[in-house]
Amino acid sequence: xxxxxTILIIDRSNRQPIYLQLTxxxxxxxxxxxxxxxxxxxxSRLLSDxxxxxRKTIVACYDELILQGWIISIPKKGTxxxxxxxxxxxxxxxxxxxxxxxxxxFSFSKNDILQRTFPQAFQDDFIYVNDGVSDERLTxxxxxxTIYRKLxxxxxxxxxxxxxxxxxxLKLREVLVEYLNETRGLNITIDNILIxxxxxxxxxxxxxxxxxxxxxxxIGETNYSSAxxxxxxxxxxxxxxxxxxxxxxxxxxxxxxxxxxxxxxxxTSHHHHPTTVTLSAERRMHLLNLAKTHSFAxxxxxxxxxxxxxxxxxxxxxxxxxxxxxxxxGSICKTVAxxxxxxxxxxxxxxxxxxxxxxxxIDRQGDAVLELTFAHFIKEGSLDRHINKxxxxxxxxxxxxxxxxxxxxxxxxxxxxxxxxxxIWVTLNKKYSWKEVVKIAAQxxxxxxxxxxxxxxxxxxNAVRIGFARYTKEEAKEFVLRLxxxxxxxx
Length: 491
Known about the structure:
CATH superfamily of the largest domain: Type I PLP-dependent aspartate aminotransferase-like (Major domain)
Number of domains: 3
Mean pLDDT: 90
Number of helices: 16
Shape: elongated
Strand order of the largest sheet: 4-12-11-10-9-5-6
Structural class: alpha/beta
């Protein structure tokens, strides 16, 4: 006889109803053949006495098992395990749950392009080198929460919590059209904008539509590695051009256009990623003329437009585009906090419409109430106030970080103080390599993640990008001292 009294366990502290606890245990026992097919189960009265629960609980359990098809009730005979259920073919191990969690029971393709090693967890006593991120401690979280709470309490907000447009919240699109026209010199209408989950989503959508069959994308010799991955995943063939103090070499782009059918050029024109240099006015106009002549798209990623310290931000290429060649992507989350996944893609209406069609099948829509919150946040001038505040803070942090880094490690590395952005481009003395530095740095609780991604073209420039905006003066000192300790161990 099956020892129901010992194999059925009830946890009264569990939030799950007792009848469901018993139901799930019965299912497991039937699947494992502990209770074989066609076995007659105890009466509800007997089982209730054995397990120590009310008879109605057992009745509810049996009813649930009958509804799910695991058992059947035969009038005047009793309740039996359903004999028509196929035996589940499974490999039992000592740790089935762990095995099942790690290894799938089916084949699937693994794309080497996507194999990255970004940290997924962080330890408090470690410093993780970033390539230029904002300080979440400066986020106006209370103000945003107040706006969100007010909106959530309004009856009219209910219309925004169902399925909506794949273009993004209408109010935010209207506000961003006005805001971007005023601040970035654009000349767009609501037909030209799609709300995204950030600039990365915009790049993904654009690349999926631009690349049909291994077409050519031009990027910098040094370039934003996630953009490289995005384009390669879309089956683009990447052509690289040099990047100097004036940005992308547009003469080299012109030469490539004569040899290849170029579909697009990717640029971070304001502050080139990773080197931080700005694309010169001469090259900006040259690039736009080349785009018109050779009918290619310019995918402009304006990831940190708001952070410029020496003078006013330079208007994007999109502000000069009169031929519909520029696809302009950006985000609010970079400025406020990465967790708020709100960005935009701006292009001609026909391209935006197709992006919205594609977006339906990968994300459907964003968080309309959050998007509505940011519409109010921008409209009320709060975004501008926040930008003014953090730009002052980041300028002070840039100045201190660069001065202290030069003071402590000027004999071992070199860099130029960037005019804007949230990171510096640091070149190590050729006597040493970042590969050596990274190994020892980890011992000093300083983590460089994927430092190799800054030299995808294998030029051996011996430089990496180091963010400064997230560190207070005390944190910047600790960062530099750990790096100094690391490098001195190599000397």
